[in-house]
Amino acid sequence: MNDIQNQDDLYLLVDEFYKKLLSDESISYIFTDVVKIKLEEHLPILVTFWSQAILGTGGYTNNLTQIHLDVNAKSYLSPELFKIWLNHFYNTVDENFKGQKAEQIKTQALSIGTIMQIKIAQQQGDKL
Ligand code: HEM
């Protein structure tokens, strides 16, 4: 098994990852009902994001945490949902890639997910 080496690898990764997310009804409603994502537009954005994060290319300029706070304002992104998201992400990486970048992308997903959850907890607290 190879490591993640280029944007084609990242495209395969996010494509397989979203197949898992969208076929798991405990989380798919966020992508189909709460926000109606268009996969053909969404997947290239994910590739740009991860390419910047682990391949060192540029190009991603959106505020990722704010985007997820906006989703959370519509439908609560619970710690349980983050666990499900991360599990599917880890499994997709491990089923397709092995190596330093594969480890790095999992670690990054966990740290970004942790920061998002802290901000979400703050946002939930502000509502009380
Ligand atoms: C419970 C966990 C999560 C859920 C349910 C979720 C859901 C979503 C949804 C619905 C969107 C589309 C938002 C929109 O276009 O308005 C989105 C965008 C995105 N998500 Fe997540 N997300 C989760 C966690 C994460 C994590 C941990 C990461 C990264 C480590 C991540 C990376 C991204 C990226 C890169 C985008 C594209 C943002 C853009 O359009 O610039 N997500 N997510």
CATH topology: Globin-like
Bound small molecules, by name, code or SMILES, are: protoporphyrin IX containing FE
CATH class group: Mainly Alpha
CATH superfamily name?
Globins
Share of β-strand residues: under 5%
- Mean of residue pLDDT values: 96
User: Could you say how many structural domains there are in total?
Assistant: 1
Q: In the CATH classification, which architecture applies?
A: Orthogonal Bundle
Structural class computed from helices and strand pairing: mainly alpha
Number of helical segments with 4 or more residues: 6
| C-alpha geometry | globular
For the secondary structure, the number of strands is 0
The helical percent reads over 70%
Q: In angstroms, what separates the terminal alpha carbons?
A: 49 Å
Identify low-pLDDT runs: none
